[in-house]
Amino acid sequence: MARRDAAPVCVERTVDDRIVLAVLAAGTFLAPLDSSIVNIALPAIAADFGARIAAVGWVATAYVLTTASLVLAMGRLADIWGLRRVYVAGFLVFGTGSLCSAVAPGLGLLIAARVLQASGAAAMFAAGPALVTKTFPPQRRGWALGWISLAVSAGLTAGPALGGVLVGTFGWKAVFVINIPLSAIMAYAASRLLPEDCPEAEPFDVLGAVLAAATLTAALLALSEVDRSGLLSAGVLGASLVAVVAGVSFVRVERRSPHPMLDLRLFGERRFSAGVVAAVLSYASLFAVTFTMPFYLLRARGIDARLAGLVLTATPLSMALFSPIAGRLSDRYGSRWLATFGLAWLSLALAAMTLLQPGTPLGFVAAGLFCVGTGLSIFQAPNTAAILRAVPRGRAGVGSALVGQARNLGMALGIGITAAVVAAGLGGSDLMALARPLTPAEADLFVSAMRPALFVGAALAMAGAAASWSRGRDAVHYEPVDAGAPPRVDSSAG
Q1: Residues 210, 166 within the same domain
Q2: Which of 6, 91, 106, 176 matches a 20 to 30 Å C-alpha distance to 32?
Q3: 140 and 20 belong to one structural domain
Q4: Alpha helices in 296-354 (DSSP H)
Q5: Domain boundary among 237, 260, 283
């Protein structure tokens, strides 16, 4: 007779991996889409609530800060509670936050609703790639992550164009209303179609989660304030001090914890740490283009929003073509060469875009953006596969969260650096705040200020290529059962 206190047997349900990929790709598209779609609605929100644009900016900033501060905690929670449960819960919270945002009667409640919405997005970011790792065998994992990389980048890039159509046709509330039915559909589909998983029975490191959130929030606040207040302003220095103190405390707590939220031994593995650093630098370099191109097209060139959106689709189009191919190639040949070549190509594309003039043919602009997307797509899936390959099975959620965290930090770093470089080039001129097309003299001034930012982006991409190359061969193996064991390196690795 079986004992009454015997542990229940966890049986993982097998599901068609093509269905899983479709659900995960659709869900992965939604969260980054919302992080970029709202920016286009900020002027309309400011006009509706009679608020200053600096205050309305917190509608976007609160979302980014909350996502970045919670994604690691959500990843660890997914390891403990279950990947599918956290993923489904993420959609439900995201949809609830979208509903609250759409009906918010004032700016303060709208910002609070965005915090709720971002909490759900953090759960989706954390669990999505980990579910790919759990569902797909190693020989198909890169291909699947290629589609996930495509979904993330497409969401980030498509946001401004789609937001312009929604705001222009239905008003700013439409950018939130559209999420409500989509979230409900995705939550139902994920709960029915994604596979069961057997989470680890470990306690959640609450103190580690709080310190991690404090560190990341303070660091991102410091980066966001650099271009507004200057590098040595009181706000930047204060936020930096909080980030350092909280970060040091986090490291000390995690080293002593028997069940840490983030196993710091992971960063001792070169292939893991090099992949994370390369991911941060790749997104930082990408946002040199993402930050400057809309203003270049809409203000310096004076073209309408629809045509600008069409030009900007060159980046997601190239990613649609090359991300799955790059993922498939990484399954066969490894990640080192592909990821390094992708960032080197991205660096060359950014350097070429410094040749832009106010009168450059739009075909050349689109070709440059296409090359930017090509380099990023060749890098992303192989690099993500390498990072997740270097994570023990019981830490898949944390590994997946770190991929999302690298994206958040890279975006914040890229925006902060690009904004600071462009502002320095403008010499105190407030051209970025103008809502009208620029005069020829103003357009020349902006383009001359944009070039150094693109050069910096090219340098960041090349630094990422160097970090990617430093990872060595893809020959790391982990014991699949003991999630707390340190990595075991194949002695044949070069």
Answers
A1: no
A2: 106
A3: yes
A4: 305-312, 314-333, 336-352
A5: 260
φ, ψ at 489 (rounded to 5°): -95, 130
Question: Over the range 370-408, which residues count as b (16 or more CB within 10 Å of their CB) and which as e?
Answer: bbbbbbbbbbbbbbbbbbbbbbbbbbbbbbbbbbbbbbb
Q: What is the pLDDT of residues 298-331, one digit of tens each?
A: 778 888 767 877 788 788 788 878 888 888 888 8
CB 71 within 8 A of CB 122: yes
**At a CB cut-off of 8 Å and minimum separation 6, what does 32 contact?**
152, 153, 155, 156, 159
The whole domain housing 229 covers 205-260
Rounded CA gap, 169 and 346, in Å?
A: 35
Count of Cβ atoms closer than 10 Å to residue 418 Cβ? 26
Per the listing, tokens 């609703």 go with: 113
Q: Within this chain, do residues 235 and 272 fall inside the same structural domain, yes or no?
A: no
| pLDDT at residue 8 in the model | 43
Give per-10-residue mean pLDDT for the chain (494 aa).
43 64 82 76 81 75 83 84 88 94 90 92 83 78 79 73 78 89 90 76 79 82 67 74 87 83 78 88 88 82 77 81 84 86 94 89 91 90 83 72 80 80 74 66 84 92 92 54 39 34
pLDDT of the residue at 478: 35
Per the CB < 8 A criterion, the answer to whether 156 and 67 are in contact is: no
Alpha-carbon distance of 158 to 29, in angstroms, equals 10
Q: Which of 152, 186, 114, 123 is nearest to 327 (CA)?
A: 152
Is 493 contained in some domain? no
Residue 210's contacts (CB-CB under 8 Å, 6 or more residues apart) are none
- Amino acid sitting at position 418: T
Q: Cα–Cα distances in Å, from 273 out to 31, 125, 243, 253, 394?
A: 25, 19, 20, 20, 18
Secondary structure class of 341 (helix, strand, coil): helix
pLDDT score at 477? 41
Tens digits of residue pLDDT in 17-30 = 778 888 888 878 88
Q: Using CA atoms, how far apart are residues 427 and 444, in angstroms rounded to an integer?
A: 13
Q: What is the pLDDT of residue 150?
A: 76
- 217 with 362, same domain? no
